[in-house]
Amino acid sequence: MRIALLAPLPPEKNGIADYANHFRTALQQLGVTVETPLAGVAGNTPAIQQAIAGFDWQSVDLVHAELGGGRLGEFLALRELRKTRPALPLTATVHDPERMVWRREQLPFPLNLLERLPSPLPQAAVVLADPLTLREERRVAQGLNRLITLTRLGADCLSQRMQLAPGQVTVIHHANLAIAPAPLPALEPLRLLYFGFIYRGKGIEDLVQALAEVFKQAPELRDRVRLTLAGGTAAEMAFGAGGNYLEQLNSQIAALGLTGSIDWRLNLPAEEIAQTIQAHHVMVLPYRESKKLGLLGRQRGTSGALSWATACGRGAITSDARAFAEEVASGNGAIYPEGDVAALSAQLLRLARTPLLARDWAERAGEIGRERLWPLTAQQFVKVFEQAIAGVRHGA
């Protein structure tokens, strides 16, 4: 099988690029030839059209795209390919259901005039143009042979919002690398880990505040609980953030008297991710839904960081944002209502006072990790691809 993969790839720094890189490698190990015709191509219609015109699409059996992260290029390519290559099988993994994209490439007049004005007018323009965006999304989605989501909740929400045919969406859980298991560290001190890109919207401020509340309620735990903030400091966002977030976060930590309780591992090298996660007991992902994106729809995907936790055999405490409740529902962690600092603090306090929970969560996480290895997941994708190709050949 020979496919064209439309996706960001390293050295781009975002979770979808990391996912796509592992995905490509896993497919290649199964003997699938993977072409990347959009590599290095700008994400606008003229550049996409030029790249499409310069590639031999008859040389591939199927095109698969990775959609999400506020990107438009892959979506625009699917739109153009469906117009110009109507018989070509097209599939996509949708990382941020219930939507495929969250904004249009160009806003219509007069809304495009608002793009040049101060915030929040550009965001308001995106919201006002959303009916047009949704109509275009549905047209592209309904023209795909198969869509894949990483969670069941995401599949249900995407199917409903895009008005898809029954069976058009398949759930294939976020895969993970094969990581050699490592025993938990000694349970004292309890080591908590936030891992992921470090920017606004991840709820890191909530986690810092919750840790301060733990020490306020139980001062004896101050020397028995540590938090590490680890991950990248650059990622693509649908809406930009103002100010230096790291400086603001450091100021909050200092003001709460937590400087001596928090460690930093910024821009963690890939080869050190697993050992860093396994040096901790539990990952904490305090994500908040974006209020701006909430005007356009709900994000019901999952997290690459959570996938790393399962790969490394570690449990997680997460907010109930996205589809996290589904992902930690089988005994591999705990959830709390997003944005509820008191509830997060209560979960941290419960764990600190009952550290054997970390062991139970780790055991279940390890089981999930073994079920979701990339070679097994790639086989599921190949089966979906074969079905899509066969469906086109038989006119289904």
Provide the domain count. Answer: 2
CATH topology of the largest domain: the name is Rossmann fold
Fraction in beta strands = 5-15%
CATH structural class of the largest domain: Alpha Beta
The residue ranges in which pLDDT falls below 50 over 5 or more consecutive positions are 235-241
- What is the CATH H-level superfamily of the largest domain? Glycogen Phosphorylase B
SSE ordering: EHEHEHEHHEHEEHEHEHEHHEHEHHH
Question: What is the number of helices?
Answer: 15
The level of helicity is 40-55%
- Mean pLDDT across the residues is 93
Instruction: Give the total of beta strands.
Output: 12
Largest sheet: 6 strands, parallel
Tell me, briefly, the overall form.
globular
Overview of this protein structure:
With 396 residues, the protein is of the alpha/beta class. It folds into 2 domains: 2-175 and 373-393, Glycogen Phosphorylase B (Rossmann fold, 3-Layer(aba) Sandwich), CATH 3.40.50; 190-371, Glycogen Phosphorylase B (Rossmann fold). It has 15 helices and 12 strands. The chain has helices spanning 15-29, 45-53, 73-84, 121-128, 130-142, 152-162, 204-217, 245-255, 273-278, 291-294, 304-311, 324-327, 341-353, 356-371, 374-393; strands at 2-6, 33-35, 62-67, 90-94, 146-149, 169-171, 190-195, 225-231, 262-266, 282-285, 315-319, 333-336. The strands form 2 sheets. It has a 6-stranded parallel β-sheet, with helices on both faces. It has a 6-stranded parallel β-sheet with strand order 9-8-7-10-11-12, sandwiched between helices.
